[in-house]
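Quick start: what a row looks like.
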Amino acid sequence: MDVQDARPKGGTPKVNPSPRPTNEAPTARTDVLLCLLLVVVLGVLYALCWSGCWVPGGSDDAFYLDIASNLAHGRGFVANDAPVVIAPPGWPLVLAGAMRLSPSFAWLNLLPMTFLLAASAAWYLILRRFASPWTAFTVMLVVGTLFQWQRLSFHLYTDALFCLLLSVSLL
């Protein structure tokens, strides 16, 4: 067969479409599935540690709870009946809003856990800018199971909200 015979009337050779190359960039669907898998795996691990009771980790969480309780009851930004001047208002306001819905520690302990799960998903998406989907997934799975990160999922510290806000701002 002559090359002339393989060409359509326009003069360009016919090209058979080949199957999808194996080194093609991953799709958005892969990212979504791995991000959801990350959140589910970490969520199960955090849920196994969740007790529904207050887990005091130091004086900071008690301080923020006191401020939040006073805010929720309309007594203002005070702790131990004194005005608070050294603490940022963001976390106590979030806790006070949650206390208005329910004052139980089972409910309040879900806040840092939820914030860190959302932050893990956001950090996965940030890492995807620099790494493959499985590398980003593995890195965030390891980070999410580190003691310091996991501990923040059940203590009422400001760190969970900060991690979420920082990661979302970097997206």
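That is the whole record. The two ends are 56 Å apart (CA to CA). DSSP finds nine helices and two strands in the chain.
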